[in-house]
Amino acid sequence: MKSIEDIRADFPALHQQVYGKPLAYLDNAATTQKPQTVIDAICHYYSHDNANVHRGVHALSERATAAYEGARRKLAALIHAASAREIVLVRGATEGINLVAQSWGHANVGAGDEVLISAMEHHSNIVPWQWLCERTGATLKVIPMNNRGELQMDAFAELLGERTKLVGIVHQSNALGTINPVAEIIAQAHAAGAKVLLDGAQALAHMPVDVQALDADFYVTSAHKMYGPTGIGLLYAKEALLEAMPPYQGGGDMIRSVSFERSEYNDLPYKFEAGTPNIAGAIGFGAAADYLQSLDVRAIAAHEQALLDYATSQAAAHDYIRLIGTAAHKASVLSFIVDGVHPHDLGTILDREGVAIRAGHHCAMPVMQFFQVPATARASFAAYNTREEIDALFSAIAQAHQLFK
């Protein structure tokens, strides 16, 4: 792995001051900063190859198409998909989940069936399944967690049954940092005849993922949480599932032929990519995949785990800090409460010290309700973060606590 100094040099946004203080960017679970290679890839497309893909016969369109489809192949390789045909480019993990719920869900889930999700899900892995169940007469069931923020696997086994059609589980929790035992969950779900969707938005930047080894049916992620641009993500699904699923949206490029009597749909994955896609975003996503591969994801994971361990020990040294989410198996996220200081006030004070964190419910309101807090402060780490930035975080927290004491 490159040195931290060399990695930080790749990210232009890190080298600035906020209110006269060096920026300590610790809001990576919300979005990561972008390396220059990603920025350059997007600029190159708009500067040299700006054209629509797939339909053009001129040089710019051919170059744009090659870069767009090249990005799809890079992403397939990153997650070890069997084929690039299994990679659908979407606006992000949220759209990927909605696509599965609307397409696969309506074709396979009916009255009396059940969908299982967990108590630590992001809203994007709750609301689409609520809608599906409301419209089909299915039942949404929730796998509980314990006070450490770990799934209760015995309860999961009891909830799983012959009526379970799908299990939707976050790979790594954005609010708690918990890494769920997804291989075990998939094996048990498949034994019961259910399919599994993994929300990998927080996982792919922090750990190696092999969808074939996991035997995942569906996997979603967003580029902007893994050093790529906003507005682009991927849905992985097994090819046989995609073949059987009806299109999600109608329009250009998702069809082979159209008449007023009927339409014939395009091959995979294009039947799920209606209209002009986010070409620049996809190219930037491919560049982000290249960047991740160049760093060695396992080395990143080890570095981030060392940062999390250091931050956890720093928090434990202060009796006015309460950690939210203390799972034995977690990564890159430190959620906490400071006695007497609302998380929003804390976030504002830290910002004045140049420390960027997230304060709020993190699109996981049921998690906040479980821990009986209105919100948490969340520091989240990436490959470019340092122990010195964690020191800056806790120095600013001490100032905030003293101010409100």
What does this structure look like?
The protein is 41% helix and 17% strand. The protein has 14 helices and 17 strands. It has 405 residues and is α/β, with parallel strands linked by helices. The chain has helices at 4-9, 36-49, 59-79, 93-108, 127-136, 153-159, 182-191, 211-214, 239-244, 279-295, 297-316, 343-352, 365-371, 387-404, and strands at residues 17-18, 21-22, 24-25, 87-90, 114-118, 139-143, 164-170, 195-199, 218-222, 233-237, 255-258, 263-265, 321-323, 333-338, 355-356, 358-360, 376-380. It folds into two domains: 4-30 and 297-404, Aspartate Aminotransferase, domain 1, CATH 3.90.1150; 39-294, Aspartate Aminotransferase, domain 2 (3-Layer(aba) Sandwich), CATH 3.40.640.10. The model has no long low-confidence stretch (mean pLDDT 95). It has a seven-stranded mixed β-sheet with strand order 4-10-9-8-7-5-6, with helices on both faces. The protein is globular, with a radius of gyration of 22 Å.
So, CATH architecture of the largest domain? Answer: 3-Layer(aba) Sandwich
Numbering strands along the chain, what is their spatial order in the largest sheet?
Answer: 4-10-9-8-7-5-6
Total of DSSP H or I helical runs spanning 4+ residues: 14
Uncertain runs: none
Estimate what percentage of residues fall within beta strands: 15-25%
Q: How many strand elements?
A: 17
